[in-house]
Amino acid sequence: MGSEKEDYSSGPEDGSTSPNVVLPAAIKPQHRPLHDATVTLEEYMYYAEKTRAEEDAVAATKPPTTFMELIFPSKGTARRIEGVQPNEKEAKENPPAHADQAPSSDKLQITDLEWTNASRALRSASAAACFYLITTDILGPFGVGFSIGTMGWGEGIGLFTLFGLCAGFSGYLLWKVFLDVDSYEFPTKNYGDLGYRIWGPWLRYTINFLQALQLMISVGILVISNGLSISQVSKFRLCYVVCCLIWAVVGFFLGQIRTLNKLGFLANFAVVLNLMIMFISMGVMAHSEPNYGAAQSGSAGAALGGQSVAPFANGTYPPVERHGGIPPSTNGFIGSINGLMNGVYAYGGAQLFVEFMAELQRPRDFLKAMWGAQFFIYACYMSYGSFVYYYQGQYANQLAYQGLSPYAWQTVCNMLAVLSGIIAATLYGNIGIKVIYNNVFMEIFRAPPLTTTGGKILWAVTVPIYWTIAFIIAASIPDFFGLTSVIAAVCLVQFTYTFPAFIGLGYFIQKNAMQGEEAFNPATGVVYRRDSGIKRWVRGFFAKFWYINAMLLIYTLGSMALSGLGAYAAIEGLMAAFKSPQINTFTCKSPLEG
C-alpha cells in the first residue's frame, strides 16, 4: 500500500527512539530516485501544503481574469523564483545518508531552488485553457440521441444525469487527492503517480498500462473515423487507406506541440466546431426526413433488433417513434445495455484530469474549470440529445450528423467533425506520449526532461513513431470499432469511475489513521505511527465520517460491476460482428461503401 512502505511505530513522548522505530535520514527530494518507495504519504502531504500556500500567495497578487482571457486563453508563462537559497551550499556538500538511495552523482549537485524551479517550469496552463481541454476531451454529444433512443425518455435522461454527477464527483476526488500529494518537490505528473502514492507500485503499473492502451486506441480510432468521413465525402473515389493515412501524417506535425497550454487555442477551436455541428444538424433534422439507409445499421432501432427501422413491403418506412420508457425490441437487453454504456462513455475523460492538473499554474483552479466543463457538457448532451430523439426517434444514428438525409449538409458536418477529431487525437497523443516518456524513457532509459534540448529532440522523434504505431494497430484489426467498445468498457470506466473512488478511499482511510499522530519532520525525515498493517487500515476506515469510506467502497464495487456489464455487451456485439466477413483498413474499399 502507498503509505505502508515502511513500518513506523509511535515513539516515546519525550522524543527518544525505541528499537521499533524506523528513523530514515532526512534525504532531500532531489536526492531521491524517481519513484522512491521510502517516501511516505505524510512527506508528500507536508510538501504539498507548502506548494499550495505558495500558489495561493502568488494568485492573490494577480489581477482578475478578464472576459476576453476566458474566451481566448493567453499563453501562460511558467513561474520561476530567482536568487540563491541559504542551504544551496549545504545541498551540494552533503550527500544522502543512504548511498544506495542516491540515483546519480549529478542529482547531488541540484539545489532546492533548481529542483523546484524545474517543477514550476512545467506549470503554465490557465484555468480557462483547462476548461477547453476538458470540454474537448469529454464533449461528444452526437451519440446521445442514439442512447436515449435505446432507453426512452425517462431512463435515458435519468441515467445521463446520474452519470454526469458521478463523473463530476470522480473529478472532485482526483482533485482533492492531487492537491494533498502534489508539490514542487514531488510533482505528480500523471494518473499513475497518483495511484502510486496512495496504493503503491502495483496500481501505478496497472494505470499506466491501461492509460497507454486507451490513449493509443483513442488516437487510432479518431484517425480511422476521420478516414471514414473523408471516404464518404469523396463518394469512395479516394482509396480508403489513403484517407486514413492522411490524418496519421497530420498528426506527425500537430503532435509536435508539447505543452497543454499551447493546445488551449486548438481546444477552444474544437469546442466551437462541435457547437457548429450541433446547430447545423439540428436545423437540418427539423426540416428533413431521417437518413433511412444509414439507420439500417447505425441507429437506435437497429441496436434494438432492427424491426422498427426496417422498410415495409411497399418501400416506405415506419413513422418516427418516441417512448417514455425502454422501447419494445427483439434485442432489448443487449441493445439497451449498449445505449447505457454510451451514456457511461459520454463522460469519459478523467484519464487526462491528473495530466491537466499537473500543468496548471494553480491546480486549485481545476475544480471550477472541471465543474464548468461538466455543466456545459451536460447542457449540450440533454438539449441536443433530446432534440435528436424528438425529431428522429428510433432512426437516431450513433453519430447524429451521419443520420442527415441531405448529402450536402451531411458532408459539411463530416468535414467539421474531421477537424474536431484531429484536435482531440492530438490531445490524446500528447498525453499518451507523456505517459510513455515519463514512465519508460525517463525511468528506465534515463531520458532527459522535456524542458531540455535533448528532451525536445527526443519528443520530436517519438511523435511520428507513436502516431504510426497507433495507425497500424487501428488499421490492421478487423471490426476495430467493436474492439474499441471492449477497450472502453475495460479502461474508460475504470479511469472515470472506479480508480477515482478507489484512490479516494485509500487516501481518506490513511488520512484518518494519521489523526493524533505527529506530522512529518522535514529536518529528520521521521514519521511516527502508532500502528501499521491491517489494524491501521481498519482503524482508518471506521474513524470519523466512516460512512464516506463506505460510500466510496460501494462506488468502487459498483463501477467494477458496470465495467463488467459493458464488457459483456461489447463482447457479444463483437462476436456477432465477426460472424460476417470483416476487412481491415489496408484496402482501397471503404467499409461504408457496402
TrEMBL record:
<feature type="transmembrane region" description="Helical">
    <location>
        <begin position="545"/>
        <end position="571"/>
    </location>
</feature>
<feature type="transmembrane region" description="Helical">
    <location>
        <begin position="415"/>
        <end position="437"/>
    </location>
</feature>
<feature type="transmembrane region" description="Helical">
    <location>
        <begin position="263"/>
        <end position="286"/>
    </location>
</feature>
<feature type="region of interest" description="Disordered">
    <location>
        <begin position="1"/>
        <end position="29"/>
    </location>
</feature>
<keyword id="KW-0472">Membrane</keyword>
<feature type="transmembrane region" description="Helical">
    <location>
        <begin position="202"/>
        <end position="224"/>
    </location>
</feature>
<feature type="transmembrane region" description="Helical">
    <location>
        <begin position="236"/>
        <end position="257"/>
    </location>
</feature>
<feature type="compositionally biased region" description="Basic and acidic residues">
    <location>
        <begin position="86"/>
        <end position="95"/>
    </location>
</feature>
<feature type="domain" description="Amino acid transporter transmembrane">
    <location>
        <begin position="130"/>
        <end position="519"/>
    </location>
</feature>
<feature type="transmembrane region" description="Helical">
    <location>
        <begin position="483"/>
        <end position="509"/>
    </location>
</feature>
<keyword id="KW-0812">Transmembrane</keyword>
<dbReference type="Pfam" id="PF01490">
    <property type="entry name" value="Aa_trans"/>
</dbReference>
<comment type="similarity">
    <text>Belongs to the amino acid/polyamine transporter 2 family.</text>
</comment>
<feature type="transmembrane region" description="Helical">
    <location>
        <begin position="157"/>
        <end position="175"/>
    </location>
</feature>
<dbReference type="GO" id="GO:0016020">
    <property type="term" value="C:membrane"/>
</dbReference>
<feature type="transmembrane region" description="Helical">
    <location>
        <begin position="371"/>
        <end position="391"/>
    </location>
</feature>
<protein>
    <recommendedName>
        <fullName>Amino acid transporter transmembrane domain-containing protein</fullName>
    </recommendedName>
</protein>
<dbReference type="InterPro" id="IPR013057">
    <property type="entry name" value="AA_transpt_TM"/>
</dbReference>
<feature type="region of interest" description="Disordered">
    <location>
        <begin position="86"/>
        <end position="105"/>
    </location>
</feature>
<feature type="transmembrane region" description="Helical">
    <location>
        <begin position="457"/>
        <end position="477"/>
    </location>
</feature>
<keyword id="KW-1133">Transmembrane helix</keyword>
<dbReference type="GO" id="GO:0015179">
    <property type="term" value="F:L-amino acid transmembrane transporter activity"/>
</dbReference>
